[in-house]
Amino acid sequence: MKTTEIPKDGLEGLKQNWTNDAVSGFLVFLLALPLSLGIAKASEFPPAMGVLTAMIGGLFVSIFAGSRLTIKGPAAGLITICAGAVTEMGGGTEGWKLALGVIVVASLIQIVFGWLKFGSLSDFFPHSAVHGMLAAIGLIIFSKQIHVLLGIDPATLKGKEPIELFEMIPHSLMNEDPRVTMVGIISLIIIFGLPFIKGKLFKKVPAPVIVLLVTIPLAWIMDFKHTEPAFDMVKIGEFWGEIGINANFSMIGTFVFWKYVIMFLFVNSLESLLTVKAIDGLDPWKRISNPNKDLMAVGAGNALAGLLGGLPMISEVARSSANINFGARTRWSNFFHGFFLLVAMLLFIPVIEMIPNTALAALLIAVGYRLASPNEFFKTYKIGSEQLVIFIITIIVTVSTDLLVGVGAGILMKFVFHILNGVSFRNLFKAKYEFSHQGDEYFIKVKESAIFSNLIGFKKAFSTIDHSKKITVDFSDAHLLDHSFMEYLHHMEDECAHAGGSVVSVGFDRFKPFSNHPLAARKYSPDNVNKLEIKLSPRQLELRKFAENNDWSFFPQKVKISIKYKDFPIQNGNKIPYEENTLGKYVEAGKLESSDITLQEGARHSQSEIQMTILQVSETDLLIPDFALEPEGLFSKLFEGVLGKDIDFYNHPVFSKKYYLRGQNEDQIRSYFTENIIQFLENREEMHIECHRNRLIFYKKRDLLNPSEILYIAKFAEEFLSILQNKEA
């Protein structure tokens, strides 16, 4: 809530936001350093070359990138391709250099793709197939890194297929190195246990940092350098001496060379474009990236990294999500992350070589788990059982063969489902619609089917429309809308709402969704017209009873919201796409509205959802300055310079110690927080209060509230409003 003004770009942006971006860049650097080392080692590259890629992604690509808040660097999604390329091209130093030639050629094609504006082609690939591919990569990463965590010599794993590596796990367990395994298990406990520790500080500190702070001293105490084999420790060697023109193009005329060119080009471009789109949704200022410009910048970075010896880079989703949460404002946070990596490689190589490889294996196992966790299967199933089938088929074929065949199998299965649901062959790739406009209102009438393979045609239609106007989308002549189209429509609704326009959908009641998920595919069903069936959950029954007993209105349905909480600090770096179980009541000062909201943190496979209850006060005549008030803790003290200055009242030390108060106009806030307001807050339970444009929100915790807690927070809000009214009177 430091400011709602859109941050400037370029050198002006550096001057304006360098504090925020430097702090965020430093924290992302702490996250990126161990991951870059681990990803490079798992990819059969020299470990430090992962850091080289991240340095280039920060220092070079950030200057030309088409996105503001993404972090460029090596990614776990490319481990299997890199390792496969090195192995198939002979392994060792020679295989590494031949793989670099593949990366350079793929990068040059990637630049051409961006120049030809192929960025929108990422929409052609169904999300269930892409997520299935990533889940398969997660399983492949686990199949190898579990052996490294147990202290098994990586040389014994070379050339093994994923299924063979899984079969070897019992043998590795029987022959594990107890001391190495202990350090690896401690690392896993830290990574998976940290999210369960309460406190904002623990949620913000990257787990890899704590892993290094614990495992480096452990390895030093147990003297790993002298008592364990060399393969159990990170080896940097002559890093600066190895940097040069390392790419070898001597296999450019072979099938295997071009097979990996296609693989790199496909996965690298797709992952980058999808991440840029997802991070745009988390941008507090809702800036829209230029995907084609970003693709060219990533291609240029990949070409430079490939020539010098580094891995290919993408816009990495976990580090980009963390970048937003750490308070980044411009592309300079990516630059600073690269700068701090450069400093580390200049000054701290001896310290880096104290990292045990089992700790890096634990980090990669956690990444693999995140890609292929049971939650990914459950989330896919919630969207629709047909999505789960595509997801699982993609995983099975990818693990059994390779990435391209796996994704191809997923796409083929998606086509089979669409054809079985009545999509004609001519409609598979051609979008059918009627377009018209009347004054400031635009009309799009969708014909037949709107699916992933013809989505580009619908995107072209929407791109010609001013998003600040009203757009009516009529589905009365359509018979199938798939998940990809529903997700795009959802994205369009958000874009238009933030631009001042709106998207109105007509004819949705004719469709029967494949599941209860708001973005599930849906098919025309004659029996569904004018049919509305609501089955209340136990929580909804409890809230309905509460509403009846306390004279509140109650609306249980889950509805999409776009701008209700826009510019409130709670949504900065997060998304609030839905609310449900809305309780409403008018009081003397305005309208109270309690809702269960879905708060999405992170993006794509790094996304987590929190269900919480929040109370909003609107329709009030009070004139209140924008502010954010939250219980003060160690996190707010450490990040005060980034989040905004803490406005303390020296005559009220209890309040100043209890609460962290911030806002753009300090003088207005100081004059507004009178003695009565401060005393009220001092004498009540801690509460989060945010105000924006004379609307207030209150919440106690990031969790659902029971009826008695809702009643308390409503009473708290009424009393608070009463004091504000008396002040103005």
Task: Please give a structural write-up.
- The protein has 729 residues and is α+β, with helices and mostly antiparallel strands.
- It has three domains: 10-400, no CATH class; 425-528, STAS domain (Transcription Regulator spoIIAA, 2-Layer Sandwich), CATH 3.30.750.24; 539-728, no CATH class.
- It is built from 30 helices and 17 strands.
- Helix 1 crosses helix 18 (357-372), helix 13 crosses helix 14 (291-308) and helix 20 packs antiparallel against helix 21.
- The longest helix is centred in the N-terminal third of the chain and has 33 residues, at 10-42.
- The radius of gyration is 27 Å and the shape is globular.
Short synopsis of the structure:
The protein has 729 residues and is α+β, with helices and mostly antiparallel strands. The strands form three sheets. Strands 9, 10, 11, 12, 13, 14, 15, 16 and 17 form a nine-stranded antiparallel sheet that branches. Strands 3, 4, 5, 6, 7 and 8 form a six-stranded mixed sheet that branches. A two-stranded antiparallel sheet has the order 1-2.
